[in-house]
Amino acid sequence: MSERVTVIGGGLAGTEAALTLAGRGIGVDLFEMRPQMKTAAHQTDRLAEIVCSNSFKSTARTSASGLLKREMTALGSSLLEIAQHCRVEAGMALAIDRDQFAAEVTERITSEPRITLHREEMRTIPSGGSVIVATGPLTSEALADSLTELLGLEQLFFYDATAPIVSAESIDRRIAFEANRRDEGTGHYLNCPFSETEYDAFHDAVLQADLYPLHDFESTSFFEACMPIDELARRGKQTLCFGPMRPVGLIDPRTGERPFAVVQLRPENRDSTAYNLVGFQNRMRHGDQRRVLRMIPGLANAEFYRLGRVHRNTYLNAPRMLDGFLAVRAEPRVSMAGQITGLEGYVESIATGLLAACFTADRVRGRDLVPLPRETMLGSLMHFVSSYEGKKYSPTNANFGVLPPIPDRRKKARARNEEMVARAEAALETWRAGLTEAVASFPSP
User: Fold this and answer.
1) Is residue 157 over pLDDT 70?
2) Hey, what CATH topology would domain 162-310 get?
3) 178-187 per-residue burial string, b: 16 or more CB within 10 A, e: under 16
């Protein structure tokens, strides 16, 4: 095949798109600006480097994230296959060794003969040929300006944050205990339990900590699922207890009772030499951050491999710009993928890379595009991106709220979720069975 596709961005969405296109026999020019240009969040020059949590979320059958993963696996996701190979124990969550994952994705890209990797900044959208823009939340200023010119609309901005990572050896195991909430799965979460007095002192310390200022933007707009703890603490004294520090489903073996609050620690790698403070992204200055986090029971002598920080995210007003196949309405040869579409989360980013590549492959081959059923999680996410009708478009993760409701609303939430999962699985199977090699580039059943 003579036509090549340009993929801009070597993150999760871009590498998934490149591998998907190559797997369908299409040549790819993949552009990644690192290490020529650094970002505020990345630390290496590896492709698909993960800068926040190392969790790809739940694999449970009746969870929205679990449903999304199964649909993507059915469609041949390369990065989910690699993630399974790099998995570390984390209960029902698909947590990965981030270094191994990035190394394996980089090796897969560089060893694929149909992919040419260009280590340089793409400052403008190419004027011809098929293009997938997957530049993620840290799109360079030059390319953001080029997108603005192409789309005729201003960009939207919000802030995201990364959580601290602590050395395993510095955790006091006499206090921190191993358990999953409600005994789900066989993972190795560590839990740092608070008494009410300890929690009150910790909450006050968070409120008094000096914060790094946010620069270059007039307002602050955090994505709710990545809300820094310093912002949550300002919403009320009990907010953290109902958020990342909720103690539900945990019993402190020292007391035989449920703690007033907990901080959960998740393994960062297979050897469990480092732990991520789950949900503890923040923008406290580093001196104050070390002091405050060492108030967590079990972390009095904590050694931090990484401290929390805040960085800029960029996303588009996708419903005004994109169709249901992730293509720019005004310029269909250009598709968007990753967090720039307004879908938040690692797996969601990979999903958009997978779908953008499959739809682009169909366009290149002159085939009719076949939308995914709305009953599937993938189909509903595409509907959300292209057809959201609310007053303000803002990022979302995979969740059962984007799926069409089931007729019987009297059922309890778990029963409704189970029915929606069964309906989605049946719809995807029917959709795939109706595809032929002459219709679409998705894998046949």
Assistant:
1) no
2) Elongation Factor Tu (Ef-tu); domain 3 (2.40.30)
3) ebbbeeebeb
